From TrEMBL, chains A, B, C, D, E, F, G, H:
InterPro entries, sorted: PurE_ClassI, PurE_dom, PurE_prokaryotes
Stated role: Catalyzes the conversion of N5-carboxyaminoimidazole ribonucleotide (N5-CAIR) to 4-carboxy-5-aminoimidazole ribonucleotide (CAIR).
Listed name of the protein: N5-carboxyaminoimidazole ribonucleotide mutase
NCBIfam families documented for this protein: purE
């Protein structure tokens, strides 16, 4: 089965990006995690973007903060679907820079952007992408959504006591 | 082969959303287009969201403006990957409301958000999602990216004359 | 006498929404509190929205954060007046997403939006709505406004000492 | 039957506010329209706010732009529910000033805020408030929502041809 | 000699507004401090605004937060120059609501707005207004500016050591 | 009688600033108009700021757009009250840069900021400042406010026909 | 003498970027203009960034709009000073995305950002950079600043007539 | 060899600006540090701006917060390249005022703006400007970029363990 590539611009993004790693583990989907900085390791960026689809990676999750160029540059280099996670890093202006520099890609080069710090949703979206061609993973997504519902219902019971 | 479902909140969103229909036609990918309003046809919303994956749809593109609830509610109801297109509708505050009410989904329910009015990129992203399990479609994405490059190079030639 | 339905997207919204419960208790108006998540319990959302006016509920207060779809979806489903409380949840971008995704509803489906985290005002507004057809409750609102005035005047006395 | 009071800060707000007048006429609900400027006719503001509930008015709709103080000051003076319409006037900064100076009322004094230029929704909300104690008006709201649905469905038919 | 009237919407604004009181004391200019809430004590607001210039007040400083209507309403009622201090209160969205609802007054009714929480500058501005017709106070402003310069120069000396 | 100095950063600001000139003419107050660019004529800026109070100027109105430094620099150099008019110039980002670079002055150096393009209000504020020590001008302000009221009342008559 | 490299993401950026070309021609400084798209021609981007300093280029001016990655990626690849011009392209949200994705670079990789659409200033800044080591060019900058002053003074003469 | 002039509006900006001093020390480039307040020491500002290029300074780094006029006024007075550092000072509205009042300079007077609190990048940019005419310093920049890359690669090794 194919893998999800998870990359981030800096080790300081790991606490946020860990949620993508964890939820994909829950779904039993293999991940490959690496640090790739668009601004500090441009050669690694090029190598990663050009070759990911030639290895066994089928979806790329890329997280970055501030003027976040990693997701968009990977989308420039790779034909795979790229999920961008805007990270509210310490040098960010309330997260607006991270969000806009990932979301507002020009026509021709999409990045599937999730919420600020929304790495968990990036992982679920990657699972849904695999699930769109795998009935087995689709069923896991259905089960996951059922578990969300049950958790809310338990909370509702407590509030009504 | 599976289809891409393209829905929008109002016929007034069609000029923007047409770009998704057109680019997917270019890729030779079948689409099914409908109007589904979260706020005016909630029953149709529920029916659409609950059953899309039981028909032959594998990715849903949903466009809406203002307090745009269509993409997020479809993502709530369907296990399929949902791509959200924020539309800068006439009642929107410079597009910020459309962007934020699609992008900022809570943990558990992702929407793959593209740029404001970025319906073309929504179509390309849908193709990339199909391509992640179809070498044939992946090759079409590779070819498309090559065509983008050639168009820029022609522009560059003209500017240097 | 009719009741005010108070719902919220998550138990984590309760500390904010409690102010609506408390102020309505002060007015002697009965409330019914529940957790209804637009994104995690869509069936409950539909059931709640479609039936609230068939039970003894006359106004609905709905609080949610981030891409907050609960107030708008309830307004889509119910003919009752819906008061929306934008909650500054942990995943919110300074509250802007909560505010805009509740306030900017399309023509035809209003949500009576109050200030960010303004659950107390949502409660008072619900009382005013009941008061618009009940002289008894209207008088309670008049008395409440008088009590606000007296509190300010006491503060003024202290400052002038 | 009681009336809806519709006031605005300037005759230049009338093109926006007319939608509230029109939709309430459709519902067969009587309206009383006036110009009341918080900043230029403060005495009229005081008289209006203090006496509206003593006449046959049960809900007040107030529209204003820029540093929009009319809705909040009326809410300060009247025990009735006040619906605020932020108007994107010529001196407004993209509507943000109008929205924030109406929405962000302090605890104790709510204004039921609708979308920027959302006068139509203000009218519908006023009807819903009357409907919360009048089965006849509630039915009109139910019928109106049905008409919205049918209009969307006709649009959907055309798009699928 | 005439006095500066300093008013604020709530005792919670006092820590910010104290800076205006203190700097005016430094200039030897008399102040009169009071709590006047536009939303909770509208009668006091009217009385204050209509009569301040008939007493010995020549400039009014008004501070408020959130949907801050106090400065603008006082400017509506009084012919005196009104200085508005946007306060970043606990219910404010990063101060934007306070700033915009004080600054963006319609043509005809100015409020002299200072920076967010800029009560000190409001005091200095009041002194400058008195100074524009009083050579003695003008000289105090000149001296104050000289003291600012000397403080910076001392800091500069330390940094160059 | 003293004069109001009106300066602006560029002749392109004149259409906006003309409103200050006109309203002061209405009040019978003398003005002196000049172009002073903080960024292109810094020597003139210094000369103007240092000497205005030594000539017969008692209030300075300064308008500028974009990174608008003229009002703040004049306030740095002159002990007179400085009124800043943020101009929405062609190079401005929706006016936010003009507003923030005039309003957000540091402690010690106030600029009395009016609304975006609010030159008319700058003129009225200058009149009010003169009026705070001149009963004759104060009366003109009172009369002006009365004229505003009458204009609104005429508009109200027409709307009620 | 060395050249200024001027690149932009798309031919549609040329009307804005032409101002940089023109002002540098005025200074008699040679320029080399090209189209380099970070997202559509990543190989050309890499080649350009890695080799510019090995050719006779000493400063790079890069203009782009939306999620503008060109200036930052060139700064990642080249040791030369990179001047970024945020372009308000048709797909931009009022220019905020262009500004933030160029300005907010992480520590270690600066981009010298100028105002939105500020290509003229980018050209002047490039001249100033050359001037910091060339007395001849420095003198041209001094002369240019003198010409700005004279133009303002002529405008001032006309306004005072 | 020439020096880099580093100035800031207040000693409270020093913790941010120290990063520029430190990185330039690393590059072995001499700096001269001073406090120059546009608003409190305008004479020193004028003297500094007019004479820096006549001493041995070749690039000026200026940091300031709030309505930050120091970088732009220095750029008005000096023909040297001026690098502006927006500082998120205590009186700033989330840094937006600092950023916009430095970045949005009018045509003719550029400021090379770096990220909010980006003093380190200001120092690197100054080194790059010297490096554009000094092969020795250019090599130091190349080496620095190599060190950034190695640090990321070490982080990547740890994450893959």
């Amino acid at each position: 089965m194919s893998k999800i590539g998870i990359i981030m611009g800096s080790t300081s993004d790991l606490p946020v990006m860990q949620e993508a790693i964890d939820i994909l583990a829950t779904f039993g989907i293999e991940t490959e995690v690496d640090i790739v900085s668009a601004h500090r390791t441009p050669d690694k960026l090029f190598d990663y973007g050009k070759n990911a689809h030639l290895r066994d990676i089928s979806v790329i999750i890329a997280g970055a903060g501030g003027a976040a160029h990693l997701p968009g540059m990977i989308a420039s280099l790779s034909p795979l679907p790229v999920i961008g996670v805007p990270v509210k890093s310490s040098n960010s202006i309330d997260g607006w820079d991270s969000v806009l520099s990932i979301l507002q890609m020009p026509g021709g080069v999409p990045v599937a952007t999730v919420a600020l710090n929304g790495a968990k949703n990036a992982g679920i979206l990657a699972a849904q992408i695999l699930g769109s061609s795998s009935p087995e993973i689709l069923q896991k997504v259905v089960d996951y959504k059922e578990s969300l519902k049950q958790k809310v219902e338990e909370g509702a019971k407590n509030i009504k006591k």
